[in-house]
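Hi Y.,

Following your request, here is the sequence exactly as I used it, all 95 residues.
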Amino acid sequence: MVIEALREVYDPEIPVNVYDLGLIYGIEIDPENNVGVTMTLTAPGCSMGPAIAQNAEWRIAEIDGIGEVSVEMVFDPPWSPELITEEGKKLLGID
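Below is the corresponding structure, written out as tokens. Let me know if you'd prefer a different format.
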């Protein structure tokens, strides 16, 4: 359900969700259903970064039974196009 929620979050400049774009580096769910997400951006200087992270947090928090949600933005390792999922490549028309 967390992945599906993240598939509803988009970088406004790219028509692919943050999960299939490969921006999600990790998802951790503890026994109390608190969720921690580690993510990145396609470019460290992206001014939309805080808004994208907040949108991810809100989407996950909407899931029934979810406790606290935290989204941590990291830039190491840097994002690269190789991280795009097969679904994301289809959406972008990349083979």
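The CA atoms of residues 25 and 84 lie 11 Å apart.

Thanks again,
Q.
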